[in-house]
Amino acid sequence: MATVCVGIPTRNRPEYVKEALQSVLNQTYQNIRVIVSDNASEKESALAVERYIDQLGNPLVSYRYQPVDIREYGQGRYLFQECREDYFTILHDDDTWEPTFLETTVGLLERDPSLDLVTTDQYVMDTEGQRQPQLTEEYGEYQGRRQYQEGVLPSILEPLFTYGFFPITGTIFRADALKRSGLVDQDCGGNYPFEFNLFLRLGERNMKAYFAATRLVNYRFHRTSLRATEAKGLNREILETYIKLVERRKFAGAMERKRRQSLAAPYRNYAILRFLDNDRLGGYRYLGKALHVSPVNWKVWVYTVIACLFPFMIKPIFTRKLALSVKR
Q1: What is the pLDDT of residue 316?
Q2: pLDDT value at residue 184
Q3: 14 and 86: one domain?
Q4: How many distinct structural domains can be found in the chain?
Q5: Burial of 248 by CB count in 10 Å (0-12 exposed, 13-18 middle, 19+ buried)?
Q6: What is the pLDDT, as a whole number, of residue 147?
Q7: Does 262 share its domain with 201?
Q8: Which residues contact 26 (CB under 8 A, 6 or more apart)?
Q9: Amino acid 26: pLDDT
Q10: Which residues have CB under 8 Å from 75's CB, separation 6+?
Q11: Which residue in 108, 235, 89 sits closest to 167, CA to CA?
Q12: Residue 33 phi/psi, 5° resolution?
């Protein structure tokens, strides 16, 4: 049987990570090795997780403590570095898998050696772990998962640039494919957009992805998730990393147009940061970049009109939004 390395990165979420780990141990496919990598959690939280794992007495599960906060890029690199199995997957500490997640995804990879990864659909659940049908539908639509049917995707890049589409917590990879891709760009760090970077490298190397339209992952929405605290439009670190990742690529035809269009919103938002830093020239330069890559984007035109005709309105409008953007 094929072997699977399951990485669970965690930080100060002892109760959630127990649920995540239990969902792995409840899998119908058990040829696995699980690494719980604790990212510099506070002492009480770290001890709770370590004791829980010790009490399991399960040789399939190990606990590793990272004494320094290495964030999502560091956790991803560390966990993959530890992988010596056929397949690799990451389950976020606040999410859970349905019992047949591994059986289904490993089965697809085993039946078709040409596949490099399998990604699945998701449920959305609340803080208490209760599924939210309306949010599930809305998030599925937002991520573009209603636009694709079960089967091999025509490419990774098209749904990635158009919707985001791929959740790392619901995807299993052939370990060799990640080795060939290099995982992520070496000069990038922090949290978001680690997942985007990983799928971008797979996509530009024409790796083959299969979409399993069955919902096999429970994705938790809560106020302390990275999605809520880091993925903000005015987060300087996120914008600078995303812009760097996308600017250094170049494709052909329709994919190149999508690449360029995907820079419009980051350029626009980074322009606002330049204005807030009293760098008006830099603000105009990034608005010009946004118009250049997406000349029919109405939001860019609105921001440009405000910046040109009513620049005094920028700080009152965006200072509060900037305060809501968490930068750790």
Answers
A1: 87
A2: 98
A3: yes
A4: 2
A5: exposed
A6: 94
A7: no
A8: 99
A9: 98
A10: 7, 9, 37, 39, 66
A11: 89
A12: -135, 130
CATH number (domain holding residue 119): 3.90.550.10
Q: How far is Cα 29 from Cα 102, in angstroms, rounded to an integer?
A: 6
**Cα angle 121-123-129, degrees, rounded to a multiple of 5:** 150
Distance in angstroms (rounded) separating the CA atoms of residues 269 and 173? 33
H helices present in the chain, as ranges: 14-25, 43-56, 71-81, 101-111, 133-142, 157-163, 175-181, 194-204, 226-229, 236-247, 253-261, 264-276, 280-293, 298-309, 314-324
Same domain, 69 and 86: yes
Q: Please tell me whether residues 63 and 186 are part of one structural domain.
A: yes
State whether 143 and 257 are in the same domain. Answer: no
Which pLDDT value is given to residue 327?
A: 41
Cα-based distances in Å from 3 to 6, 34, 218: 10, 11, 23
Residue 231: predicted pLDDT: 47
Residues of the chain with pLDDT under 50: 231, 326-328
Task: Print the domain residue range for 269.
Answer: 236-324
Residues 110-152 pLDDT 10s: 999 999 999 999 999 999 999 999 999 999 999 999 999 999 9
Decide: 37 and 66 in contact? Cβ < 8 Å.
yes
Beta-ladder partners of 97: 217
